[in-house]
Amino acid sequence: MISRIRVQVIVALVMVVFAVGIWASGDTPELRWLRFYSVAVVVVLLALAAWDKWLWRLPFVQRVASVPPDIRGTWKGDLDSFWKYETGSPPPRKTAYLVVRQSAWRVSVVLFTDESRSVSSLAMVSSDGMTASLDYMYLNRPDSRFEDRSRIHHGSASFDIIGLPATRLRGRYWTNRDSRGELDFTARVPKIAEDYQEAERAFMPSS
User: Fold this and answer.
1) CA-CA 20 to 30 A from 168: which of 7, 10, 54, 98?
2) Same domain? 47 vs 137
3) Cα 48 from Cα 55, distance rounded (Å)
4) What does the alpha-carbon distance between residue 56 and residue 125 come to, in Å, rounded to a whole number?
5) DSSP 152
6) What is the pLDDT of residue 188?
7) What domain range is 10 assigned to?
8) 162 is a domain residue
9) CA–CA distance from 61 to each of 32, 45, 122 (Å)?
10) Which of 58, 206, 79, 81 is nearest to 150 (CA)?
11) Are residue 116 and residue 192 in the same domain, yes or no?
12) In the 8-state DSSP scheme, what is residue 168?
C-alpha cells in the first residue's frame, strides 16, 4: 500500500503544478483552493485502499494487461525433486500446497510439504498482457525429524500463471544446496491454510 506521506507529496505536487499552470496562463492562483488539500489526500487514500483491497481483482479489471492476475488462496499440486539422496536416486513425487496471500501491490507465498515449509522473503506477480508469472525467493525450514538429511536452505522459484482466471501454476525451483525441481499446481480453494494439515483438510470432500 502506498504510504500516506507519499500520497500527500503526490497531491501537493499536483496542486503546485496546477497552480503554476494557472499562473503561466496569466491568471492568479487563489490560496482558498488549498482548503481542498486535506480532502484530496483523504479521497486518494480511500481510492488506493479500495484498489489495493478488492477493486483490482474484479473480473473485468483482471482483463487489463497491467493488473496482476488474482492467484490468492491455497493451491494443491505435485512436487518433483531432482535432488539425489544417499541412494543416488531422487525422492518420489509428493503432494505440496502453495498458499498465496495477495493484494494489488504485494504478494507473499508459503509452500507446505509433509517435511517442511518454505516462506517467501521477496515475491512479485508480473504480467505483460500475454504471459504472467509468480517469482519469489524463500527460506525453507525442514521439520526437526528430517534435519539429518535436509538442512535449512535458501532458494528461488518461478511459476507460469496459466488461465484467466488462473487455473494452474507451473514452474520450477532452485536452492543454494545445488538442488532443483519442478512444481505443478492445478487445484485451488479460497481458504488460506496455516499449515500442511489444514491445507489437506481444505481439499477434502465435504460430507
Assistant:
1) 54
2) no
3) 9
4) 13
5) -
6) 97
7) 4-53
8) yes
9) 37, 20, 25
10) 81
11) yes
12) E
Contact (Cβ atoms closer than 8 angstroms) between residue 164 and residue 63: yes
Summarised one tens digit per residue, pLDDT across range 104-130 is: 999 999 999 998 999 999 999 998 878
Give the residue-averaged pLDDT of 18-33: 63
Name the grid cell of 63. 482483463
Return d(Cα 40, Cα 162) in angstroms, integer. 39
Rounded to whole angstroms, the Cα distance separating 118 from 98 reads 9
pTM: 0.82
* DSSP H stretches of helix in 25-150: 37-53
Higher pLDDT among residues 130 and 33, named by residue: 130
For residue 91, what pLDDT band results from cuts at 50, 70 and 90? confident
Concatenate the DSSP letters of all residues of 92-144 into one string. Answer: PPEEEEEEEEE-SS-EEEEEE-SSEEEEEEEEEEEE-SS-EEEEEEEEEEE-G
Q: How does residue 90 score in pLDDT terms, banded at 50, 70 and 90?
A: confident
- Per DSSP, the three-state class of 186 is strand
Q: What are phi and psi for residue 151, nearest 5 degrees?
A: -90, 165
CA angle 100, 193, 63 (to 5 degrees): 30
Relative to beta strand 153-162, strand 73-81 is: unpaired
152-161 pLDDT, tens digit per residue, is 889 999 999 9
SS3 call for 32: helix
Assigned C-alpha cell, 151: 538442512
- Do 12 and 114 sit in the same domain of this protein? no
